[in-house]
Amino acid sequence: MITKSKQAWEVGQQVKVGFLNGLTVVAKIATPGDFAPDAYVLANKAGTQTYKFVPHRGIEKISLLEARELIADAKARADRIAAQAIAKASEAARAIAALNEVIFA
After folding, report:
1. Looking at residue 63, what is its pLDDT?
2. Is the pTM of this model over 0.85?
């Protein structure tokens, strides 16, 4: 996530990358675990070109299909991480309930 910038890198905001002005942030793609900066899917004002931007790694032109795949993969990864967190929390809750039964029985 870009934090030290005068630009707002939130979905729907217009940003400038290099000499490309007026790009709209379409999606923010988190990259947990790989220690890389988050990726951003950007579109021009006319909506005819899409780009993938990773801070310190550059900008590249991508097709609409590639943009959809990036967004779908990010959503699937976020869903998997959320499911793992929920499973871990429910297991911890069961363990705590079992301890409470032993202690307060």
Report:
1. 93
2. no
